[in-house]
C-alpha cells in the first residue's frame, strides 16, 4: 500500500469505531508505558473489561504509582500493579523478565506501547541510539523473553494470548537504504552515532516504526498458523501525546498546532491498542489501522522487503541473544524457520 501525506491527513478526520470489548475475567494484562497517554487510556479500557490483573510497566515508580491511584479513582479497579522497566536499559528489561519468571503467573495480553522519538543522537548506557533501542530492540526483547510464559498460559488455560506492538503510519516513509542492508549488520549501523546524523534523525522515528512491523511479521511467520499466540502491529494514528515532548522549537510549536487541528484524542488512539488485544478477525501478523487490517508500506510487502525482514530478524536474534541467552532458547523451542 502506498500512503500519501494527503490520505494520511484526511484519515485523521474519520470517525473511529467504538472500543472493542471482551471478558477479561481471570486474565493478566501487561501494558508497557502504562502511566500516561495511550498506555494509561488502554489500561482504563482493560480495567472496564474486568481483567483479573493489570501490570502497569513503567520507568518510574512514582509516576507508575500515581497512575495506579488515578486508575483506582477513575474506574474503581483494584487489581493493578506497578512494575518497573526501562527499555533504554537492557538490564532493566532482563530484571523485568526475571520478576515474571519468579512470579509464575499467567500472561494473556502484552501491549508494547512504550516508545520515544529523539531530535538528535543520544546513546543509551548499552551503546545504542536511544530510539532504536527502545522502539526496535528492547520492545522485541520483552516479547521474546515473555513469550514462554504466554505459551504456558495458552496450554494451561486453553486461551490464545496476544502480543500487540504499537507502530505508526509514519512507517510508510521509513524505508531502510539498500546500501545499509547490503553491507550487513544493518541494525548495528542504524544504531550508531556515525549513521545518526542530524538530518537522518529528523525522520529516524519512521525507521524504528518500520522495524516494528518487520518484527511482527517475522515473528508471526515463525510461530505458525496453529500456534496459540497472536502478534499484531497497530497504528494509533496521530494523537494527542507526550511522545513529541523532546522536540525543539519551532517543530514543537507546529506539532502542537497540528494536534489542535487534526489529532485524535488519546482515548481514541488507545482504542487501536485495545483492538489489537481483543478485537475480532484474522489478525495474525497484520498491520491494524482504525480497527481494520490494512497493508503496510509497499517497501515492507515487496520482495526486497521480505529479504530485509529475514535479514533483520537474523540480526535481531543475534544481538538480543548476546543480551540474554534466554532469547536463543525461546527461538529454538517455540519458533520455526521462516516459511
Automatic annotation (TrEMBL):
This is NAD(P)-binding protein. GO terms for molecular function: oxidoreductase activity. Keywords: Oxidoreductase. It comes from the Eukaryota. The keyword Signal does not apply. InterPro entries: NAD(P)-bd_dom_sf, SDR_fam. Signal peptide: none annotated. SUPFAM superfamilies: NAD(P)-binding Rossmann-fold domains.
Amino acid at each position: 500500500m502506498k500512503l500519501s501525506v494527503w490520505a494520511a491527513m484526511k484519515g485523521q478526520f474519520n470517525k473511529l469505531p467504538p472500543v472493542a470489548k471482551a471478558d477479561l475475567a481471570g486474565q493478566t494484562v501487561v501494558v508497557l508505558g502504562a502511566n500516561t497517554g495511550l498506555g494509561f487510556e488502554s489500561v482504563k479500557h482493560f480495567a472496564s473489561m474486568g481483567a483479573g490483573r493489570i501490570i502497569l510497566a513503567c520507568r518510574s515508580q512514582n509516576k507508575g504509582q500515581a497512575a495506579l491511584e488515578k486508575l483506582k479513582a477513575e474506574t474503581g479497579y483494584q487489581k493493578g500493579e506497578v512494575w518497573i522497566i526501562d527499555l533504554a536499559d537492557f538490564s532493566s528489561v532482563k530484571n523485568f523478565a526475571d520478576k515474571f519468571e519468579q512470579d509464575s503467573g499467567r500472561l494473556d495480553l502484552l501491549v508494547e506501547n512504550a516508545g520515544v522519538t529523539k531530535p538528535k543522537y543520544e546513546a543509551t548506557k548499552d551503546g545504542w541510539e536511544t530510539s532504536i533501542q527502545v522502539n526496535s530492540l528492547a520492545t522485541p526483547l520483552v516479547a521474546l523473553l515473555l513469550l514462554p510464559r504466554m505459551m504456558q498460559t495458552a496450554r494451561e488455560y486453553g486461551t490464545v494470548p496476544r502480543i500487540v506492538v504499537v507502530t505508526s503510519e509514519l512507517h510508510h516513509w521509513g524505508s531502510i537504504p539498500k546500501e545499509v542492508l547490503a553491507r550487513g549488520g544493518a541494525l548495528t549501523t542504524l544504531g550508531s552515532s556515525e549513521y545518526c546524523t542530524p538530518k537522518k534523525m529528523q525522520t529516524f522515528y519512521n525507521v524504528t516504526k518500520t522495524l516494528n512491523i518487520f518484527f511482527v511479521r517475522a515473528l508471526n511467520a515463525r510461530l505458525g498458523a496453529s500456534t496459540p499466540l497472536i502478534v499484531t502491529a497497530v497504528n494509533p494514528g496521530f494523537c494527542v501525546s507526550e511522545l513529541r515532548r523532546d522536540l525543539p522549537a519551532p517543530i514543537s510549536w507546529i506539532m502542537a498546532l497540528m494536534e489542535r487541528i487534526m489529532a485524535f484524542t488519546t482515548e481514541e488512539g488507545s482504542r487501536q491498542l485495545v483492538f489489537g488485544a481483543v478485537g475480532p478477525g484474522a489478525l495474525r501478523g497484520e498491520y491494524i489501522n482504525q480497527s481494520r487490517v490494512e497493508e503496510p508500506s509497499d517497501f515492507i510487502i515487496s520482495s526486497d522487503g521480505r529479504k530485509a525482514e529475514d535479514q533483520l530478524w537474523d540480526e535481531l536474534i543475534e544481538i538480543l541473544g548476546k543480551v540474554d541467552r534466554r532469547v536463543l532458547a525461546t527461538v529454538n523451542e517455540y519458533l520455526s524457520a521462516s516459511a
